[in-house]
């Protein structure tokens, strides 16, 4: 970067921007810091008088108990396992559908686009009732793959529309020159479109991942054993009839968010790489 | 002046009357038909039936369920609150997400880490989000109420969730807090499609920052914004976890929405027919937004 | 504490139980013992339960003891969060994917049993040798009004009473209240700067302490003939007193009208409130916090006759859809035998036992505070087994009582509305 002298106006702009960034970060992370502090607070202190922001001592007891006496790591593994099936499933379905809807004209195109939205119109609490019977008949109850299929089915519509939006923004000269060069449709998709679609796929994949990571109701209804149960259901078990195990709940919350943030840190560069390469400037 | 926009012939070019689009669509269609289509149709059918809880037997009753729920004393109030809940939460999310995305699309130190941290509320299960806020907002022990009293902004404990005038607005703010990251990530991704050349060209043509945003940035991200807003409207209308855990729809009925009523009617009163009717009715109203969206995008596509 | 040695003997009684009918007309194959039979292995059953603390091992230990002590039945436990428990049972029953046996609250029975979701346990109970050990009055918690059939086997019981701060009462020079009027006067007197008399718990689960108050004050949900009498003159008056804690006296802390038990307990434990209605489940914890400053009394009532309160039963049901009902009975009846019940009732998740033989144990007679709850058993009244009870408790009670606290509904309107819900059949 070149060094330039900043005008007072630019300095003011920078200060405002950093102040805004800081303020937003505090607003976003504030509740989370309270949660992290809670997870480190001794259990007795929580039970006696609720949470305080400044505990008398910090302890990792909750994390230790969570990992050693509850199937928490199991739940974490199950969640990862389901996500690792649901995310690729979503991306395959959504990318294919998005390319078809953005780049092809065919019979029923608009109807399918509409149907994708209408598929989401009813709340999960209602759908779950019929879906459970259906999964039972299909032998997919208490089965991680079954849960992944359901999650993918509910992530695909938005992912498709999202990717279609990205594709619509990508000019078509490249594909046209490709087809002049004699490349097949499949080659054009694989070699030209897919790389351009990467930022969109990262966004859609992130969405699908978080959907399956946080999804509670389907996971609760379709799984029963510790071998298939996912994190959100596992966390809910710490809310008892007469007590809430705040220590375990918050420790579990911290541990369940870390993989998501770490994963996002890894892929976020892709999110902003994309078109900057300049290949498609008009 | 703005290059890169091609007429619709481009779409037709790649595969006129080919089999390819159907192959590309097949996985998505099959998956959605099987796992979302069937329960959807069956749930709609339930709204026209009396459903025996525990046995699942159905008896067709026509529009009886709809008549019953629209005559319930709180129906219109619930409808209005649903409108406030959806309108408030989605517009806050859009606004916050847009501002945040524009901010973190600029260069600054540790930008990558910042982007990761901004995701945290989105990556937290709803039950935890709800309980965390319940704790923070507790009138007696919560730090927000204590802080407000400490600095003299309130002279008694603030009842965020148990004051009928504050419960719904509070829920809306919490939902926005949870939902802004989704908008941020989606808009951020869309912003990558905005060509720097176009921005510079527009700037040299005499557009100020606002002009550049309106004429160059906004058109590029508007498809993403529209679809995100539309689906967010649908999701928010159907989202009950936060309300159920934090207020249960109360105090009184001051934060009860149609979706919550649907859930309570179906499961707590085991009246699945009427429960489904609430949701189907809401879906029928939401179709208005879908139609609006399709009109908008159709015009966009025609312009291309 | 583990008790395993007794198992062989204890099981002898149920193993030889002869069954003539399963009572539900569902397909029951051959000998009713399902697929496990042909292979000669144990019959495998699933049992659903909720737990107060998912890290406590009492339940899993019991299941292990059961499985290792005999080879006829193997039980698998599936823990479900309480908030979603009723939903999941309903969904599962509709799709025939439910468990063989399940834990159940008494106020769900009125919804489950008439819909045919739960098996009639009467034939099993009639041949059960521990039958007469169950406190006679408690069988009604598993019955529907006016019926003799038993749908739920009593297991863990609790009665509600009142905790109070002796030191706070001493400060204002008051005795522990015996009548509801004394209670109201005390609540008002105890309310001061950042201190309040009593949490009304208008949020989740609050219907239990409200009903305990109503019963104590002489009100009833139904009379002996099964007629709904919640909105009679007594009902209106006693409910009016409860509402007045908020509307007139302002003796409830901020947030009380939507508070759930976690809030109520925190408020009492942190010294914000002076009185709290709950059951012995929080006795150990509160004793630890307050020691001798903690007092326990029956819920203030009319001042004449025996004091009444609410009794709440968590029992066990067998799902009507189960094809392994005999095996399921073996497990749930084993849970209700003396030793296992003692294990459960003395565990951190335990409540009061339902067997006279266990109730006589030292643990339940020596602690004077606990004795208040035990002594209340004979005169405690439960939720009636009406279909409308689950709807009232799960859906209508909260908004209705909250509107009462806000002054939007009068006491008469509140009980009228609730009575109408009770009278509905769904």
From TrEMBL, chain A:
Give GO BP annotations, semicolon-separated: transmembrane transport
Q: Does the keyword Aminoacyl-tRNA synthetase apply?
A: no
Work out whether the entry's keyword set contains Plastid: no
Where does the record place it? Cell membrane
Membrane-protein topology = Multi-pass membrane protein
**InterPro entries from the xrefs?**
BP-dep_ABC_trans_perm (IPR050901), MetI-like (IPR000515), MetI-like_sf (IPR035906)
Q: Which family does it belong to?
A: Belongs to the binding-protein-dependent transport system permease family.
This protein's name: Carbohydrate ABC transporter permease
Which organism does this record belong to? Tessaracoccus rhinocerotis
Q: What is the lineage of its organism?
A: Bacteria, Bacillati, Actinomycetota, Actinomycetes, Propionibacteriales
TrEMBL record, chain B:
Q: Where are the transmembrane segments?
A: 21-41, 84-104, 116-136, 216-235, 242-264, 276-296
Residue limits of the ABC transmembrane type-1 domain? 79-293
Compartments (UniProt record): Cell membrane
Read off the CDD domains from this record: TM_PBP2
Q: Which UniProt keywords apply?
A: Cell membrane, Membrane, Transmembrane, Transmembrane helix, Transport
The annotated topology with respect to the bilayer is: Multi-pass membrane protein
Q: One of this protein's GO BP terms?
A: transmembrane transport
Q: Which Pfam families match?
A: BPD_transp_1 (PF00528)
Example of a GO cellular component annotation carried by this entry: plasma membrane
The family annotation for this protein states: Belongs to the binding-protein-dependent transport system permease family.
* Protein name stated in the entry: Sugar ABC transporter permease
| Native organism | Tessaracoccus rhinocerotis
TrEMBL record, chain C:
What are the record keywords, sorted? Signal
Pfam family membership, one: SBP_bac_1
Top-level taxon: Bacteria
Indicate yes or no for the key word Signal.
Answer: yes
Report whether Signal shows up as a keyword of the record: yes
- Signal peptide residue numbers: 1-20
PANTHER family the UniProt entry points to: ARABINOSE-BINDING PROTEIN-RELATED, DIACETYLCHITOBIOSE BINDING PROTEIN DASA
Name of the molecule in the record = Sugar ABC transporter substrate-binding protein
Per the UniProt record, the lineage of the source organism begins with:
Bacteria, Bacillati, Actinomycetota, Actinomycetes, Propionibacteriales
């Amino acid at each position: 970067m070149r060094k330039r002298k900043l005008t007072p106006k630019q300095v003011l702009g920078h200060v405002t921007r950093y102040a805004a960034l800081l303020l937003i970060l505090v607003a976003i992370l504030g509740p989370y810091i309270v949660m992290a502090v809670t997870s480190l607070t001794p259990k007795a202190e929580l039970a006696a008088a609720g949470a305080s922001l400044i505990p008398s001592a910090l302890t990792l007891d909750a994390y230790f108990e969570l990992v050693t006496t509850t199937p928490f790591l199991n739940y974490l593994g199950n969640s990862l396992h389901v996500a690792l099936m649901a995310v690729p499933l979503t991306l395959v379905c959504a990318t294919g559908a998005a390319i078809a809807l953005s780049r092809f004209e065919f019979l029923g195109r608009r109807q399918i686009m509409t149907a994708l939205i209408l598929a989401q119109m009813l709340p999960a609490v209602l759908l779950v009732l019929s879906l459970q019977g259906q999964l039972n008949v299909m032998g997919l109850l208490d089965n991680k793959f079954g849960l992944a299929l359901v999650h993918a089915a509910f992530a695909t519509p938005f992912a498709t529309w999202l990717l279609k939006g990205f594709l619509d923004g990508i000019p078509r000269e490249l594909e046209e020159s490709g087809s002049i060069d004699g490349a097949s449709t499949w080659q054009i998709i694989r070699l030209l479109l897919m790389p351009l679609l990467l930022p969109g796929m990262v966004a859609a994949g992130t969405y699908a991942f978080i959907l399956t990571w946080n999804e509670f109701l389907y996971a609760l209804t379709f799984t029963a054993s510790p071998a298939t149960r996912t994190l959100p259901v596992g966390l809910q078990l710490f809310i008892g009839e007469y007590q809430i195990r705040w220590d375990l709940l918050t420790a579990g919350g911290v541990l369940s968010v870390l993989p998501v943030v770490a994963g996002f840190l890894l892929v976020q560069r892709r999110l902003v790489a994309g078109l900057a390469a300049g290949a498609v400037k008009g | 002046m703005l290059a890169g926009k091609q007429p619709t012939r481009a779409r037709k070019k790649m595969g006129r009357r080919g089999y390819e689009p159907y192959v590309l669509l097949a996985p998505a269609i099959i998956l959605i038909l099987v796992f979302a289509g069937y329960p959807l149709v069956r749930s709609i059918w339930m709204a026209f039936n009396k459903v025996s809880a525990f046995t699942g037997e159905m008896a067709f009753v026509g529009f009886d369920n709809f008549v019953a729920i629209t005559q319930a004393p709180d129906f219109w109030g619930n409808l209005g609150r649903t409108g406030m809940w959806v309108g408030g939460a989605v517009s806050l999310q859009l606004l916050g997400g847009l501002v945040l995305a524009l901010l973190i699309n600029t260069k600054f130190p540790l930008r990558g880490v910042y982007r990761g941290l901004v995701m945290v509320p989105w990556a937290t299960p709803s039950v935890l989000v709800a309980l965390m806020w319940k704790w923070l907002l507790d009138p007696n022990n919560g730090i927000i109420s204590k802080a407000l009293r400490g600095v003299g902004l309130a002279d008694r404990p603030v009842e965020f969730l148990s004051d009928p005038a504050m419960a719904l607005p509070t829920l809306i703010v919490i939902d926005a807090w949870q939902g802004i990251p989704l908008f941020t990530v989606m808009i951020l991704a869309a912003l990558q499609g905005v060509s720097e050349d176009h921005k510079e060209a527009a700037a040299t043509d005499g557009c100020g920052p606002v002009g550049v945003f309106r004429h160059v940035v906004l058109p590029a991200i508007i498809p993403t914004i529209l679809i995100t807003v539309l689906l967010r409207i649908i999701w928010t209308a159907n989202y009950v976890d936060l309300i159920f855990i934090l207020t249960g729809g109360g105090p009184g009925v001051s934060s009860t929405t149609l979706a919550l009523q649907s859930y309570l009617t179906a499961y707590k009163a085991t009246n699945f027919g009427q429960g489904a009717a609430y949701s189907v009715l809401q879906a029928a109203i939401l179709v208005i937004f879908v139609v609006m969206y399709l009109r908008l995008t159709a015009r966009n596509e025609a312009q291309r | 504490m583990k008790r395993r040695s007794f198992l062989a003997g204890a099981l002898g009684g149920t193993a030889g139980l002869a069954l003539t009918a399963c009572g539900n007309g569902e397909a029951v194959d051959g000998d009713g013992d399902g697929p496990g039979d042909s292979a000669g292995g144990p019959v495998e059953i699933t049992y659903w339960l909720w737990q107060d603390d998912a890290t406590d091992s009492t339940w899993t230990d019991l299941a292990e003891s059961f499985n290792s002590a005999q080879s006829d039945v193997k039980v698998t436990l599936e823990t479900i969060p309480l908030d979603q428990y009723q939903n999941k049972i309903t969904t599962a029953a509709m799709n025939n994917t439910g468990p063989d046996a399940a834990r159940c609250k008494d106020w769900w029975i009125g919804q489950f049993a008439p819909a045919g979701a739960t098996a009639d346990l009467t034939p099993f109970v009639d041949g059960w040798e521990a039958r007469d050990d169950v406190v006679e009055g408690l069988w009604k918690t598993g019955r529907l009004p006016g019926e003799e059939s038993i749908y739920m086997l009593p297991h863990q019981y609790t009665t509600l009473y009142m905790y109070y701060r002796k030191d706070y009462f001493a400060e204002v020079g008051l005795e522990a209240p015996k009548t509801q009027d004394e209670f109201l006067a005390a609540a008002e007197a105890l309310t001061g700067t950042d201190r309040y008399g009593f949490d009304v718990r208008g949020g989740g689960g609050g219907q239990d302490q409200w009903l305990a108050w109503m019963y104590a004050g002489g009100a009833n949900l139904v009379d002996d003939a099964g007629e709904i009498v919640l909105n009679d003159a007594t009902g209106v008056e006693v409910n009016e007193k409860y509402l007045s804690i908020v509307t007139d006296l302002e003796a409830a802390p901020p947030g009380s009208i939507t508070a759930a038990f976690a809030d109520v307990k925190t408020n009492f434990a942190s010294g914000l409130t002076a009185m709290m209605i709950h059951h012995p489940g929080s006795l150990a914890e509160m004793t630890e916090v307050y020691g001798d400053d903690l007092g326990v009394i029956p819920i203030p009532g009319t001042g004449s006759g025996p004091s009444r309160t609410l009794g709440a039963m968590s029992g066990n049901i067998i799902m009507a859809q189960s094809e392994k009902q005999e095996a399921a009975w073996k497990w749930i009846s084993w849970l209700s035998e003396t030793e296992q019940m003692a294990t459960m009732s003395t565990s951190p998740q335990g409540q009061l036992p339902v067997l006279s033989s266990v109730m006589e144990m030292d643990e339940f007679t020596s602690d004077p505070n606990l004795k208040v709850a035990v002594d209340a058993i004979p005169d405690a009244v439960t939720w009636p087994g009406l279909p409308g009870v689950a709807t009232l408790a799960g859906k209508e009670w909260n908004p209705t009582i909250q509107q009462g606290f806000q002054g939007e509904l009068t006491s008469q309107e509140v009980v009228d509305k609730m009575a109408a819900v009770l009278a509905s059949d769904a």
